[in-house]
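Following up on my earlier thread - several people asked me to post the actual chain instead of describing it. Fair enough. Here it is, all 185 residues.
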Amino acid sequence: MTNTRSIPVGIDLTGLGSVPGDAAWTAVTAADGAECGANIVRIRSLDLRDAQATREQVRADAVVEGRDPDGVTVLVDVEVVVAPDARRARREFAALGASLRPAADATLRYVGTPSGLGGLIDDIVAAGVADGVTVLPLPADGVVDRVLDETLAWLGDRGARVRVDAVESVRAAARTLARGAALAS
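Reply from S.P.:
Thanks for posting it. Predicted structure:
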């Protein structure tokens, strides 16, 4: 029997195009209350130290408001480009160039392999930087499928409870967005 643990992961496809409101953010792992979107606070941070300080502030605010801080799930946004190897991921990221937001609006970014992203997510949770992660795939070929197929499998092998129904919903939404983008170009 595999040990299961809470590693809240959501995927937000809004960076790939216009997404209907209910499909913009989807919890792809089951995590104590997070699968329904209850009491989730998403944060954007330029670095891990800032993310941890923001998480601590959110939890302190919950206490001031008379709420249980353990009832709040803080997810840090991470923009990602993943590829079979890190060199290819860096090339794909560089090719995005001008289509990326300016640095002043940046959040954490990961450019590397799907298993490396899994390790980063696991480390963020284990170190208390945030309770989980919202993955924001950048518009490079194959990123969504690699996150869904490889990163989530990596996390599942380490006890995360992957929601297959949610994964397929995200995959369908991403394909619809890709078809729309192809028609528009």
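The first strand starts at residue 9 and ends at 12. That should answer part of your original question.
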